[in-house]
């Protein structure tokens, strides 16, 4: 097997075709330990021992590491990182689509500090663009694709201080509809789109699920009325009935806020991430100039880690991989640059000298110095802390593989924290070879823009074949591009 892999590597040549299509898959919180544990878990679901399993993302030929810190934070948040990998500029924690000159929560500091995303640049070049997420579409990661906000928390005007509204800033949901013209928007977030007090169509008797907007706007109607061949859906039945050949714009909001975990998803009401990804690609790919698509599994990998529940997170990782596989099946690698990465990691790890084939959700073979067993998976902090009477909880006889089991953690927190280590970038397709080494997270947006000849790389065509014949010529070229990354 190793010999065959070497032979394949020796035959690899960089694809220097202009990328017609760009797809970014963002596994929110999917650090390398989560990728590895997800691989094992997926294999064990297939009846394998697990370690030998090959995920779809494992097949991507080019790999790099991304430095995820924010300008003001060693351990980042999803807004600052989203701005980096989507806009090509590192910024402060909690801020969307703005430079680090802006201040968190201060509306006036956003003026003149706006930066544009790869999604916006693709639309400006005539491509169709889309967002697919399992969180609310106004959340930090998708929000960085279209919004300029001094706070990631300003989902609607209900979450904004009155003084910030008076200063002229708009909430993220408003910007979703009125900033970049987005063709496909799929995820959660209904509550931020309608007049406050409007009953939710799926949960009409629940006051906690009612809409939140104070300005009285119906943003979905505004979005529909401004576009031709546009459709809005909120359930699986209507989603399935959408005719891609007759639809140029699709907004699907399937929950009031975040979508449900895959383990809790009602397949009769909410589409899966893979289903949403496929629908988006079928609509976007009608554009002869190509498309840009952002796909995120958020509430989900990240939220489950925050909750200290590894089974939920690993299940979401498996679902994320299904979406990656489906996208690869219905696009051409020769013309589509596909990038898989994470915004940050978590304080999640697994160990304990477990035997080959041990359930990834199981218990290590040894015992601690307190003579008690411990789970292979542990969190560095979080709600899994359980030390009754000052001693560690004895998990003898406890089923550690239930959907809701919280793995052990030594530091008590209501929510487990992000990790600050580098995360992986995996790529295939045109100019995927430019993902190499250890890079700033902002480098991702630059490579994607270059591959598709988007601003500021409109004149990006490489005519010389020396890049193929002499790989050593990459070094001086990448040095130049590295300088551009700093200057942009």
TrEMBL record:
The keyword Transport is assigned to this record: no
Subcellular location field: Cell membrane
Cofactor: Mg(2+); Zn(2+)
Record: active site: 78
Membrane topology of the entry: Lipid-anchor; GPI-anchor
EC number(s) reported in the record: 3.1.3.1
Keyword Cell membrane: yes
Cofactor binding note from Swiss-Prot or TrEMBL: Binds 1 Mg(2+) ion. Binds 2 Zn(2+) ions.
Catalytic activity from the UniProt record: a phosphate monoester + H2O = an alcohol + phosphate
Pfam families: Alk_phosphatase (PF00245)
Residues that coordinate or bind Mg(2+): 28, 139, 141, 296, 344
GO CC, one annotated term: side of membrane
UniProt binding sites for Zn(2+): 28, 302, 306, 343, 418
Keywords: Cell membrane, Glycoprotein, GPI-anchor, Hydrolase, Lipoprotein, Magnesium, Membrane, Metal-binding, Zinc
Molecular function terms, GO-annotated: alkaline phosphatase activity; metal ion binding
Enzyme class: hydrolase
Similarity section: Belongs to the alkaline phosphatase family.
Subunit text: Homodimer.
Protein name per the record: Alkaline phosphatase
């Amino acid at each position: 097997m190793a010999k065959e892999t070497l032979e394949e590597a020796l035959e690899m040549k960089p694809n220097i075709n202009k990328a017609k299509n760009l797809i970014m898959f963002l596994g929110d919180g999917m650090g390398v330990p989560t990728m590895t544990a997800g691989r094992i878990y997926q294999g064990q679901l297939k009846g394998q021992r697990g370690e030998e399993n090959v995920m779809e993302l494992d097949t991507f030929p080019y790999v790099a590491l991304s430095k995820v810190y924010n300008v003001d934070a060693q351990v980042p948040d999803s807004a600052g990182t989203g701005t980096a990998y989507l806009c090509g500029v590192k910024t402060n924690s909690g801020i969307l689509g703005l430079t680090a000159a802006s201040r968190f929560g201060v509306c006036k500091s956003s003026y003149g500090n706006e930066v544009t995303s790869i999604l916006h640049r693709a639309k400006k070049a005539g491509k169709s663009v889309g967002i697919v997420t399992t969180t609310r579409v106004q959340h930090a990661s998708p929000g960085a694709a279209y919004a300029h906000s001094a706070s990631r928390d300003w989902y609607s005007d209900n979450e904004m201080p009155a003084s910030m509204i008076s200063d002229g800033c708009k909430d993220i949901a408003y910007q979703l509809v009125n900033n970049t013209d987005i063709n496909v928007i799929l995820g959660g977030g209904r509550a931020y789109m309608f007049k406050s007090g409007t009953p939710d169509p799926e949960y009409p008797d629940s006051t906690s699920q009612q809409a939140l907007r104070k300005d009285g706007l119906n943003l979905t109607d505004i979005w529909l009325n401004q576009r031709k061949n546009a459709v809005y859906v909120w359930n699986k039945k209507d989603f399935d009935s959408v005719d891609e050949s007759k639809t140029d714009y699709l907004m699907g909001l399937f929950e009031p806020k975040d979508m449900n975990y895959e383990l809790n998803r009602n397949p009769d009401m909410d589409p899966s991430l893979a289903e949403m990804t496929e629908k988006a690609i079928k609509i976007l790919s009608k554009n002869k100039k190509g498309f840009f698509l952002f796909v995120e599994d958020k509430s989900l990998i990240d939220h489950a880690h925050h909750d200290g529940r590894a089974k939920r997170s690993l299940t979401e990782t498996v679902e994320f991989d299904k979406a990656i596989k489906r996208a690869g099946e219905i696009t051409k690698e020769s013309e589509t640059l596909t990038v898989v990465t994470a915004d940050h990691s978590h304080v999640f790890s697994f160990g304990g000298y477990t035997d080959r084939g041990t359930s990834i959700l199981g218990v290590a073979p040894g015992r601690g110095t307190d003579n008690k067993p411990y789970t292979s998976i542990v969190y560095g902090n979080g709600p899994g802390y359980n030390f009754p009477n000052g001693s560690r909880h004895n998990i003898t006889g406890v089923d550690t593989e239930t959907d809701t089991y919280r793995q052990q953690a030594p530091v008590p927190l209501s929510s487990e924290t992000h990790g600050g280590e580098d995360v992986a970038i995996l790529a295939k397709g045109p100019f995927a070879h430019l993902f190499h080494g250890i890079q700033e997270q902002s480098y991702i947006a630059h490579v994607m823009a270059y591959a598709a000849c988007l601003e500021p790389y409109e004149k990006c065509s490489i005519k010389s074949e020396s890049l193929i014949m002499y790989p050593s010529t990459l070094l001086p070229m990448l040095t130049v591009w590295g300088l551009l990354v700093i200057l942009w």
